[in-house]
Amino acid sequence: MKLKHLLLMMVAAFLFVVLTACGDSNAPGTATTEPAAEATTEAPADEPGDAEQVDVNIALISHSPAPASTLNDGSFNQGAQDGILRFAAANPGTVHNFLQPHEASDEARIDVIADAVAQGANVIVLPGFHFQTSLYEAQDIFPDVHFVLLDASPRNPDTEEVRVAANVAAIHYAEEQSGFLAGYAAVLEGYRSLGFLGGLPVPAVVRFGHGFVQGAEFAASELGLAEGEVTIHFEYLGGFGPDPARQATAGALYASGVEVIFAAAGGAGNSVMAAAEAAGASVIGVDVDQYHESDSVITSALKGLEVSVYDMLVSVANGTWNGGRELRFDASNNGISIAMETARFENFAQSDFDAVFARIVSGEITVDQSMDSADIVTTLVTVTFVE
């Protein structure tokens, strides 16, 4: 593998010379060209046009081949794509492609990054923690490519060292705040038997779940509910892809009396939605607004995938890129939320959301970011953690 990557470095250097000399910005793209939806959060970056423009050729790469990861996953990849489409709509002629590795491995991910560079990409968007170790190496192999890494930072697989090179922007989100809002809304809406089904216990998913528990506890306290009146079943599904077994897990929870499940599970959320439809129960979606995925979705815990990707593309185009750092999107910069305009709530009102959101922004409500479930202490809500 090391020899292969040495060869990649040599190829990368050659490509840089060729691409610099040729300057071809009109290569055909394979992504759709429909206009992007409006961003769900405010973009602090300057709009394109404020400085000398740089031609942007974008590659969005999934962490695994289909069906484990797809472009229209109704979740993480799609949220990143929305940011790309928004940028492309404002910059006609932008080249943007979606690529997938042939297998789910670091070597295959580095190979597909090399393919993207060979096709002319100078900005590569990598959604998800799966890329943290492959990008640790790729950021040095391709120093002239801008990398936008979502939900992770480049990490040495041997030493766990985190190093963000100057050509990398590592984007993080306050999932615990978004999860808090979801749990708070669920209890104020009137649900008392709740479930959380995460894909895998990776940091972003853990924060979603722990925030969900804290939000439910806070709401139970505000409503003066009795100890044990609200319950949460907390479990990980073992993966992010749709699967009949994962649908069966959700179905069993609904059959046991669970009224609503927060599915922080990527494509596996569609399996939870199928179970909810069969049971006449409810789901809270994740990452992007998933109301259109199923009538069972009452709201979604959002993070600013679209706006964060868009912001980074604008900075490349304007020549204002400031990489080599980790960026955090949270309530204070409208980087997280829950879907309200499309919500199927009957009791939880916009005024309820506005009030609790403002308290998070002000710091009056602080949501614990702990990765250890033992740190998430509840006195009113009964939580069953399933290993």
Please provide a written account of the structure.
This protein has 387 residues and is α/β, with parallel strands linked by helices. It folds into 2 domains: 2-174 and 306-331, Rossmann fold (3-Layer(aba) Sandwich), CATH 3.40.50; 175-303 and 336-385, Response regulator (Rossmann fold). The protein contains 10 helices and 13 strands. It has helices at 2-22, 76-90, 106-118, 132-141, 175-189, 203-223, 244-255, 269-279, 305-317, 350-362; strands at 57-61, 95-99, 123-127, 146-150, 168-173, 193-198, 231-236, 260-264, 282-287, 297-303, 325-329, 336-338, 382-385. It has a 7-stranded mixed beta sheet with strand order 12-10-9-8-6-7-13, sandwiched between helices. It has a 6-stranded parallel beta sheet with strand order 2-1-3-4-5-11, with helices on both faces. Helix 1 (2-22) runs parallel beside helix 3 and helix 5 (175-189) packs parallel to helix 6. It is globular.
Question: Could you outline the blueprint of secondary structure elements for this entry?
Answer:
Blueprint: H1 2-22, E1 57-61, H2 76-90, E2 95-99, H3 106-118, E3 123-127, H4 132-141, E4 146-150, E5 168-173, H5 175-189, E6 193-198, H6 203-223, E7 231-236, H7 244-255, E8 260-264, H8 269-279, E9 282-287, E10 297-303, H9 305-317, E11 325-329, E12 336-338, H10 350-362, E13 382-385
Parallel strand pairs: 1-2, 1-3, 3-4, 4-5, 5-11, 6-7, 6-8, 7-13, 8-9, 9-10
Antiparallel strand pairs: 10-12
